[in-house]
């Protein structure tokens, strides 16, 4: 159950690995289920899951998601996208835009409810995920 899982999206403009690459979190609205590699496989048949969001957060948070019939890779990707969009919005509502680290392009740290540091939403890639218990997932997020 604790095996790392992943999926790629098919991108004709990507020159490596047959045009398959890790999905960027923020690009979900541009992706369709047929762009998920391996035919959009089922991640879980459970209708209610929790996902732990920990990177790049100083205060990890767990969010619950519901999908009748269970979650395909596309549905799981949607949940990750919705979770991060809400987390970043909550942080900005609490602290405002922290700007960037002086002399760098990285997002400055903020002291809101999630303590986001180092990366904006546009920097995050869904590299993989792990189901530690039935219906409870952690993420492998790259930047």
Question: Averaging pLDDT over every residue, what do you get?
Answer: 92
Q: What sequence of helices (H) and strands (E) makes up the elements?
A: EEEEEEEHEE
The computed structural class is: alpha+beta
Helical content, roughly? 10-25%
First CA to last CA: what distance?
26 Å
Keywords:
single chain, 143 residues, alpha+beta, 5-stranded mixed beta sheet, two-stranded antiparallel sheet, 1 helix, 16% helix
Brief synopsis:
This protein has one helix at residues 73-95; strands at 4-5, 9-10, 20-21, 42-44, 48-53, 61-66, 71-72, 125-133, 136-142.
Describe the model.
By secondary structure, this protein is of the alpha+beta class. The protein has one domain. It is built from one helix and nine strands, in the order E-E-E-E-E-E-E-H-E-E. A five-stranded mixed sheet has the order 1-8-9-5-6, covered by helices on one side. It has a two-stranded antiparallel sheet with strand order 2-3. A two-stranded antiparallel sheet has the order 4-7. The protein is globular. The model has no long low-confidence stretch (mean pLDDT 92).
Topology record:
Elements: E1 4-5, E2 9-10, E3 20-21, E4 42-44, E5 48-53, E6 61-66, E7 71-72, H1 73-95, E8 125-133, E9 136-142
Parallel strand pairs: 5-9
Antiparallel strand pairs: 1-8, 2-3, 4-7, 5-6, 8-9
């Amino acid at each position: 159950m604790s095996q790392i899982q992943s999926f790629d999206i098919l991108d004709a403009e990507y020159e490596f690995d047959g045009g398959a690459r890790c999905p960027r979190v923020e690009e979900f609205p541009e992706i369709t289920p047929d762009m998920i590699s391996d035919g959009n496989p089922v991640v879980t048949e459970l209708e209610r899951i929790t996902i732990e969001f920990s990177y790049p957060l100083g205060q990890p948070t767990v969010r619950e998601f519901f999908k009748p019939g269970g979650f395909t890779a596309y549905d799981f990707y949607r949940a990750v996208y919705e979770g991060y969009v809400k987390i970043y919005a909550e942080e900005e509502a609490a602290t405002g835009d922290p700007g960037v680290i002086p002399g760098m392009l990285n997002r400055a740290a903020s002291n809101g409810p999630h303590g986001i540091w180092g990366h904006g939403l546009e920097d995050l890639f869904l590299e993989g995920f792990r189901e530690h218990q039935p219906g409870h997932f952690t993420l492998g997020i790259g930047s």
